[in-house]
Amino acid sequence: MKKLCLSALLLALVFSGAAARRAAAQPEDKPTDKTAPSYDMKAQSLLDLDDMHKKFVRLAEAIPAEKFTWRPGDGVRSVSEALLHVANMNFQMPPSAGAAPAPGFNKDGYEKSTTEKAKVIEQLNQSFDYVLAFVNGMSNADFAKAEPKLGPEANAGDVVYIIVADDHEHLGQLVAYARVNGIVPPWTAERLKKQAAAAPQPKQ
After folding, report:
1. Fewer Cβ within 10 Å of end Cβ, the chain: N or C?
2. E strands present in 133-197
3. Is 13 exposed, middle or buried (0-12, 13-18, 19+ CB in 10 A)?
């Protein structure tokens, strides 16, 4: 009898502890924020995408054509593959938020479709023109449009956010690729040149 009572007590403690943990894990009800948003995601996304468009193309132009097949290791994207991965993302994501697919785009084998510098840059330009037109054509209300196929709480703004965040990530990757190969990003070279010109000159 004592063993039965002890077992019952232990089970009760286990279940009560689990219930307490579940209760603690539940977020407290928070009041809904009724204030107007202070951040214009559409405008900022367009600024970011336009800036990255210019930087990706300028960096691609600065990298010698023979380096487009360079990769930092086996199984890692080469320069051309990394650049085409960016274009691939720009082309693939907008249709998931209702945009018409980019004419002529075929995702199958896309990232390995070419290593030619001019063709890679052409694809970059086309992909950024496409994604910028997509975002520019959205209204502010469109950013809140539900996209349940992407998740229970997903919306079109999430799609834009993913594109911007992923492009930023790969811009950093390609800057690292350039640096390893002794190439200074053009915008950094320009800044350093201005700093050198503004520095006090030693007296003769």
Report:
1. C
2. none
3. exposed
Would you call 139 exposed, middle or buried from its count of C-beta atoms within 10 A (0-12, 13-18, 19+)? exposed
Report which of 174, 148, 162, 167 is spatially closest to residue 70, judged by C-alpha positions: 174
pLDDT tens, position by position, for the chain (204 residues)?
444 443 443 333 333 443 444 444 445 566 777 776 667 899 999 999 999 999 999 999 999 999 999 999 999 999 999 999 999 999 999 999 999 999 999 999 999 999 999 999 999 999 999 999 999 999 999 999 999 888 888 999 999 999 999 999 999 999 999 999 999 999 999 999 999 888 887 776
> From the DSSP assignment, how many helices (H) and strands (E) are in the chain?
6, 0
CA dist 4 and 1 (Å) reads 5
